[in-house]
Write a structure and sequence with these properties.
Layout: H1 3-13, H2 20-27, E1 34-37, H3 43-50, E2 55-59, H4 62-70, E3 75-77, E4 92-98, H5 107-117, E5 118-127, H6 132-139, H7 159-168, E6 171-180, H8 189-198, H9 200-203, E7 204-213
Parallel strand pairs: 1-2, 1-4, 2-3, 4-5
Antiparallel strand pairs: 5-7, 6-7
Length: about 210
């Protein structure tokens, strides 16, 4: 199954719900215009629009694009295997990549293009493949959730990997938001969030990062 077929099947069965990546990314964006790469059905663009922040979206899935356009959003179909984004240099205040890089065999190509088309900022969210739950699942001989085929993940990302990817592609991290496991258990949320902030490589489930173009 090709990536296009995988994504079309995915979006034919699902609609996005507001989760950590949307909330965290919104807190890291001050103004538009925004380019949302891999925007899916346009949920984050809708959220931005409600805050009077303009945005454009690209997605590989024809199904997702049709859903987003039905919401009167400016979303276009684009194959991320192509070499160049269809925009001029410095076209956007912020480029957004929410849970996208882990789906790409060569994420650096897209990061270089994001660097080209953004004036200032990159906001991204990625899962932590080296979180403590993933490590424990491996020790028990199980497949960690992020590695299961239905997730469509092909590039393993950790705290050190994402920092290195950004540095190599001329981005400097300015802010980072994290979430952690067991945060829904009464009395544990503040403890787990503290651990995720102080030891993100182990205790963070996801990283939401604001990086500045340099």
């Amino acid at each position: 199954m090709s990536l296009k077929d995988f994504e079309n099947e995915y979006w034919s069965k699902r609609n996005q719900q507001i989760v950590f990546r949307h909330k965290a990314a919104l807190s890291l964006i001050e103004k538009g215009p925004v380019l949302d790469l891999g925007c899916g059905d346009g949920l984050f663009l809708e959220i931005l629009k409600s805050k009077d922040i303009g945005g454009v979206g690209l997605d590989i899935s024809k199904v997702a694009v049709e859903k987003a356009r039905a919401k009167r959003l400016d979303v276009r179909k684009f194959d991320f295997a192509d070499n160049k984004l269809p925009f001029e240099d410095n076209s956007f205040e912020t480029v957004v990549l929410l849970d996208i890089l882990e789906h790409l065999y060569q994420p650096e190509k897209l990061l270089r293009e994001a660097h080209r088309v953004t004036k200032r900022n990159l906001v991204l969210c990625v899962p932590n493949f080296n979180s403590l739950p993933a490590r424990l699942q491996m020790l028990m001989g199980k497949t960690p959730e992020n590695n299961k085929p239905r997730q469509g993940h092909v590039y393993w990302i950790s705290h050190s990997v994402i920092k290195d990817l950004l540095e190599r592609n001329n981005f400097e991290i300015e802010d980072i938001e994290v979430n952690s496991f067991f945060s829904w258990v009464p009395g544990l949320k503040s403890i787990m969030q503290f651990l995720a902030r102080t030891r993100p490589a182990i205790f963070a489930l996801n990283f939401a990062i604001k990086a500045r173009k340099i």
